[in-house]
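Project standup — Tuesday

K.O.: blocked on the structure for the chain from last sprint. Re-posting the sequence here as requested.
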Amino acid sequence: MPTTFRYAAKFVLLAAAAAVTATAVNAQSAYPNRPVRLVVSQQAGGSSDTIARMWAESAGKVLGNSVVVENKPGAGGIIAAQQVLGQPADGYTLFFGGVSQMVFNRFTYKNLPYTPEKDFVGVGMLTTVPFILATNPATGIKTLDELTKKAKAAPGKLNFASAGQGNSTHLAVELLSQALGISMTHIPFKGEPDGVMATIGGQTELMAPVFGTALPHIKSGKLTPLAVIAPQRLSELPEVPTASELGVKGFDTMGWSGIVARAGTPPDLIEKLHKATEAFHKDPEVQAKLKSMGVIPLPGPASLLMETTARDTKAWGPTLQALNLSNK
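H.V.: unblocked you, prediction finished:
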């Protein structure tokens, strides 16, 4: 091949490579130039779906393009996670990931088809939902200390309700029991309302429902609150201490959720999405809505979500593993 021709061919190849690179850079800088999808593993209408849609609306304004929520319920969030991981890591398909999908699932499914810390990257934390550890007033248990003493005096005798095996209302009590050094018997129900009514009716002695579910029954005197599982006391229940205040550390944000993207998503796109998340947290209307839902905002760096995933997996792993929940 003549030298002149070789140089010309080389120039064409370099020019083509430069054009491809420039196109990719321009595509990223123009992001998003089409709607972004946010995949949610819960059904439409629930609190998680509501929070996801609030973020989508707020983020869409900042990004300059719409964020469309797609509900893919089933299999504890596995269907939704796989939907996201089956798409390119280009920032156009995101996942509404919470503690169940990012931490609990690895202990409740034998062959989880994804590894949270390897397959996802954090965009930003959104919220944490408080749990309220509460008893039936007929038990006479009014404080966490009284619960601990009664449970230690008769291991396994006290029954606690949950919204189902492996549900966060189940695991919250199991993890607290481990921290307190007590043993109680788990009675799973088909849903949170059924578990609450069983506790009110005396079929079980206690439960840890989410704040929004527990509050009306606490106000009516049908449940006695012992502790709040949240970062701080709640304005609606100012007299109820947090678990942390009572010496039970590491459970402040058990019901957390946020936005993640597929691992490999370009850092500049993650930064754009995180700035949209910061705007979500600064929006007064968003904050007012979250407060009305009994939900606590969790602002922080994009890395906070995966750091929390690693922290909770390490802290809770031994207890969750010992429960032998992996039956699917």
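K.O.: great, moving the ticket to review. Confidence is low (pLDDT under 50) at residues 4-27. DSSP finds twelve helices and eleven strands in the chain.
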